[in-house]
Structures are given as structure tokens and as C-alpha cells.
Design a protein that fits this description.
Blueprint: H1 18-28, H2 33-50, H3 54-70, H4 73-88, H5 92-115
Helix pairs in contact: 1-2, 1-3, 2-3, 3-5, 4-5
Length: 118
């Protein structure tokens, strides 16, 4: 892997486990680690209270998708650019177009996670 190559993933996609995802977040997006830990705790609490694993599954899927996007420098940069555009744009067509592209990036990431791409 060439350092700084925006076409190459920073790391392989980790397995969809809390521990593996935590390590990946710590490596590629350390500023997101406090949010990861808060959401992990909340999902575990919700799962215990409801005796249901669905909150943990949602948590793992959401963070696997996050890692899938963030491990790809060009995709992550475009995602942030689009998020910023949606937040400040006043032109409705521009917002709609940016939101559609965000949706495509998220769909692609979900599909990659489901296929187990590394």
C-alpha cells in the first residue's frame, strides 16, 4: 500500500465485530472513537434492556459502513464535501443532488460490507 495514495484503502475492511471496528476507527479516524464508544455502550444497554440483539446489529452495521467509507481517502473526502454542501447550500437542486450522491456512497458502502469486501 502506498502511503497517501487516495485510490488505495488505508486499511483492509475489518470484520464486522465491535473490537475490530474499534481498532479500525482508532487507526483511521481517532477523533470518532469517543462517538464509537458512546454508541457501543448505548447499543449494549438497549440490547440488554430489550433482550434483543437488533441494537447491536444496527451499531455494528453503521460503524462497518463508516469504516468502509473512511478507509478510502477519496471517498471519505467526497463524503465530507457533500455533507458540508448539504449543510450550507441554499439551492434546493444542489442540495438534492448532493444528498443523492451521499445516498449512493452509503449504498455502495452497505453493499461492500454485506459482500464482506476487504
Amino acid at each position: 500500500m502506498t502511503a497517501g495514495d487516495p485510490e488505495r484503502p488505508l486499511i483492509p475492511q475489518p470484520p464486522a465485530t465491535s473490537a475490530a471496528l474499534r481498532q479500525a476507527v482508532a487507526k483511521i479516524a481517532p477523533a470518532a472513537l469517543p462517538a464509537f464508544n458512546r454508541e457501543a455502550d448505548a447499543a449494549a444497554d438497549e440490547a440488554r434492556q430489550g433482550a434483543d440483539l437488533a441494537p447491536l446489529r444496527r451499531f455494528v452495521t453503521a460503524w462497518a459502513v463508516y469504516v468502509q467509507i473512511q478507509r478510502q481517502p477519496r471517498v471519505a473526502a467526497r463524503f465530507r464535501e457533500l455533507e458540508d454542501l448539504v449543510a450550507v447550500a441554499e439551492d434546493e437542486a444542489q442540495v438534492r443532488s448532493a444528498a443523492a450522491e451521499l445516498g449512493r456512497i452509503l449504498d455502495d458502502a452497505h453493499q461492500a460490507v454485506e459482500r464482506g469486501e476487504r
